[in-house]
């Protein structure tokens, strides 16, 4: 637990790798004596280590400071509905080892988190390290999270996770760790902010399109979670008043109209009606089920119906994003998630709809692209979250 000014110093080192005492004085406004004092305290607390020598401008060569690599490890955890991604990183946030496994959130929190703990222990064993050396854990989950408590609130179709103490469960295996839990899309946005296309961009939105649709919002260079943590839950914005029933119980929600299952259902109907021989062939080859990925493959082969289904979905998503653009004025929208890679028609239709419906001033500096981190975004963001909350002032950690 360190002071907010000292946290500024550490954040600056995270960005640049190293820092000099002169830079610390400039950054914090501390006097020379105070810099010496604080640096000595942070070295003896194990946060900082001295490294080599900086450029001399005459006189004694200044010693530089970096994060102490022996401080411990971070664990990044990205829990998806059907998969699990883990990464072990050093105190500077560099990923050392990773693993992925199939998982099923419907098995309930104990089973899934036991898999997380076992996976983390395995990564530590491979590096010859102990569970006590994990000092911070970031966890992403696919549902609404009350961020201050680190618990899921009313997750659709995963009732067993409601209010489950994820933090306490993982601390039984990793007793020295700070554990922070966040919505997976927020972590994808955080990953892009710290290590991807969002670096240096103050206002952007990450949109995840998969079974559900959600958004992570970066406002003023920070994740905007809203007053209770549910900001960005755009999948349940009404897109078609009398549309299909959503898993949340309402009708016509964006994700029910335009998400992966909606794309697959429309394609299956087209296959059965004879509108698309390509989709009909795929439907039969897959035992009567179609996935959004199959629709993407048909579109890549030039199937007209598949292309139109994807375009329709992109248009509906784009209409909702246009509203967000008018409201929030981001300079970047990144599209990710499992359905994002089904074809360029999706991105093209989203762009077209956003440009058509947003005001000229709002779109003047707006870029819309696929997420460059892709499936890595979640676990990268989980490590970032772990780092952010390791080095933050006391009251925030306990909040
Ligand atoms: Zn809904």
Give a structural overview.
This protein has 399 residues and is of the alpha/beta class. It is built from 15 helices and 15 strands. It has helices spanning 4-16, 21-28, 32-44, 109-126, 166-173, 184-195, 254-258, 260-273, 277-285, 292-300, 304-328, 344-357, 360-363, 377-390, 394-398, and strands at residues 19-20, 48-51, 64-67, 73-79, 83-89, 95-102, 134-141, 145-146, 151-152, 178-183, 204-209, 213-219, 222-223, 332-336, 367-370. Strands 6-5-4-7-10 form a 5-stranded mixed sheet. A 5-stranded mixed sheet has the order 13-12-11-14-15, with helices on both faces. Strands 1-3-2 form a 3-stranded antiparallel sheet. Helix 6 (184-195) crosses helix 14 and helix 8 (260-273) runs antiparallel to helix 11 (304-328). The protein is globular and about 80 Å long. Mean pLDDT is 91; it is low at 393-399. The structure holds zinc ion (ZN).
**Strand order, biggest sheet?**
6-5-4-7-10
- What small molecules accompany the polymer chains? zinc ion
Number of strands: 15
What percentage of residues falls in helices of 4 or more residues?
40-55%
What is the radius of gyration computed over CA atoms, rounded to a whole number of angstroms?
Answer: 23 Å
Strand content of the residues, in percent?
15-25%
Name the overall outline: globular
What gap, in angstroms, lies between the N and C termini?
Answer: 13 Å
Arithmetic mean of pLDDT? 91
Structural class: alpha/beta
Biggest beta sheet summary: 5 strands, mixed
Q: Count of helices? A: 15
Uncertain ranges: 393-399
Question: Strand-and-helix sequence, N→C?
Answer: HEHHEEEEEHEEEHEHEEEHHHHHEHHEHH
């Amino acid at each position: 637990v360190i002071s907010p000014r000292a946290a500024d110093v550490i954040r600056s080192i995270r960005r640049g790798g190293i820092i000099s005492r002169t830079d610390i004085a400039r950054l914090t406004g501390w006097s020379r004596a105070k810099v010496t004092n604080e640096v000595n305290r942070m070295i003896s607390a194990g946060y900082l280590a001295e490294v080599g020598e900086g450029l001399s401008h005459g006189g004694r060569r200044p010693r530089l400071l970096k994060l102490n690599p022996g401080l411990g490890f971070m664990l990044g955890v990205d829990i998806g509905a059907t998969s699990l991604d883990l990464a072990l990183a050093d105190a500077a946030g560099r990923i050392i080892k990773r693993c992925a496994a199939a998982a099923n959130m419907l098995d309930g929190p104990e089973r899934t988190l036991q898999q997380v703990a076992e996976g983390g222990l395995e990564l530590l064993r491979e590096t010859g390290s102990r569970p006590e050396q994990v000092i911070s854990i970031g966890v992403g989950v696919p549902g609404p999270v009350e961020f201050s408590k680190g618990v899921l609130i009313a997750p659709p179709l995963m009732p067993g996770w409601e209010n489950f103490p994820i933090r306490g469960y993982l601390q039984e295996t990793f007793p020295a760790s700070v554990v922070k839990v966040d919505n997976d899309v927020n972590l994808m946005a955080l990953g892009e902010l710290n290590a991807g296309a969002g670096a240096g961009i103050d206002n952007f939105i990450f949109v995840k399109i998969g079974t559900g649709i959600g958004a992570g919002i970066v406002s003023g260079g920070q994740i905007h979670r809203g007053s209770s943590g549910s900001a960005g839950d755009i999948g349940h914005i009404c897109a078609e008043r009398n549309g299909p029933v959503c898993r949340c119980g309402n009708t016509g929600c964006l994700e029910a109209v335009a998400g992966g299952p909606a794309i697959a259902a429309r394609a299956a109907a087209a296959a059965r009606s004879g509108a698309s021989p390509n989709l009909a062939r795929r439907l039969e080859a897959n035992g009567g089920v179609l996935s959004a990925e199959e629709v993407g493959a048909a579109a890549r082969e030039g199937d007209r119906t598949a292309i139109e289904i994807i375009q329709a979905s992109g248009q509906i998503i784009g209409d909702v994003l246009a509203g967000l653009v008018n409201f929030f004025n981001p300079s970047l929208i990144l599209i990710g998630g499992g359905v994002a890679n089904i074809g360029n028609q999706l991105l093209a239709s989203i762009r077209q709809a956003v440009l058509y419906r947003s005001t000229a001033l709002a779109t003047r500096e707006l870029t819309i692209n696929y997420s460059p981190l892709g499936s890595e975004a979640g676990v990268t963001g989980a490590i970032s979250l772990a780092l952010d909350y390791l080095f933050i002032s006391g009251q925030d950690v306990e909040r």
